[in-house]
Amino acid sequence: MPRIHPVAARQELLSKLFPAPAPEAPREARKELSLEMRYFIAGMYAGGSKSAAQISRELHIPVSTIKDTLASLRNDGLPKPILRTGRPRKMSERTTRAVVRYLLKNRRATAQELTNAVSHISPLHRDTVTKAILRLNFASRIAAKKPYLKPAHELARLNFAKKHEKWTVEDWKKVIWTDESSFEIGKNSRRIRV
């Protein structure tokens, strides 16, 4: 018979007498019950055959959740979830409307200019205004560059204007306008965001 070390023998005896508990499964994050599940719980309880504890065991939902659902049914008549308010926004509806108005008038305004423009309504940080702009689906883009007029283009436009200077409204009504475009005479080296 092989000889067993006394420490190993003691550990073996202890493990037989006091088996280690099975490791617990990690708890899953709970989600709010869907409206269909709330109605299902209400229907199971309304049948009168099941208690909250029985429903809990059958559906694997905590008893407290079942009881809360049934309590909302008794109080309001509908098994609806509790409304949660959360933290109120820093920007009021009035300030948000002012931001939209200012952005529509001044497409090239920076976030700091916009913050300064609405600061008389409520003092806000530039980052707060920037987040509101993004939430309102306004985005900052680099403006497309418009070609500058060359001296030949300017001369051609001047000749066109002199040639058609005497035209009447009736003459202009016969013209089909196919395109409108803007142009710049001077050069702006800075990239412009709109």
From TrEMBL:
Q: Which residues form the Transposase Tc1-like domain?
A: 97-164
Molecular function (GO) terms for this protein are: DNA binding
The membrane spanning regions, by residue number, are none
GO biological process entries: DNA integration; DNA transposition
Listed Gene3D superfamilies: Ribonuclease H-like superfamily/Ribonuclease H, Winged helix-like DNA-binding domain superfamily/Winged helix DNA-binding domain
Superkingdom, natural source: Eukaryota
Pfam assignment, any one: HTH_Tnp_Tc3_2
Q: Which InterPro entries match?
A: Homeodomain-like_sf, RNaseH_sf, Transposase_Tc1-like, WH-like_DNA-bd_sf
Protein name per the record:
Transposase Tc1-like domain-containing protein
